[in-house]
Write a structure and sequence with these properties.
CATH architecture: Roll
CATH class: Mainly Beta
CATH superfamily: Electron Transport, Fmn-binding Protein, Chain A
Structural class: alpha+beta
CATH topology: Pnp Oxidase, Chain A
Number of helices: 4
Largest sheet: 6 strands, antiparallel, barrel
Number of domains: 1
Shape: globular
Helix content: 10-25%
Number of strands: 7
Strand order of the largest sheet: 1-2-3-6-5-4
Radius of gyration: 17 Å
Strand content: 35-45%
Length: about 170
Amino acid sequence: MKQMKKVSPTEEQNRQTITEARGLLQRQDMGVLATYNPAQGPHTSLMAYVHHPEQDTIWLLSPGQGKKIDNLRQSPKASLLVDSREQEHQRSQIQALTVNGTVLLHACPADRRDILRIFSQQHQHLGSLLQQEGLMLLELQVQSYLLLRGANHASFVRLPTLHADQT
């Protein structure tokens, strides 16, 4: 089996990866959020999201109780996997993006009516969730992107620390 040689990416390659990652996040609106609890292991959830590209922030909604929220209270680190398999007819063209970051929990989503309005427009299937009491707004502050293009090409970019007090 042929080994891939590690080469440090240039600034231009990093910018291109960030642009592609943001583009994929804008084209898609569902992903799998992974959280972790040391005693129970990983937990994954299929989630709808709203992406704010200028701030490298991803917003998600969740009921305020459950394993995902418990895990995030113990450890705010999380990953979101987003891919293009619904759009690509050739498997060799599929992109998969792992977004790593820190999640801030907002217990009062009504304070972010702008985000809730976008959720209600882009994710009409979440109408009943948006009406629930105890709803939590999850703010995933992106710290890195790992973008896979097909089976053989991967690019990793760590973003500058935008939220230094949160890490």
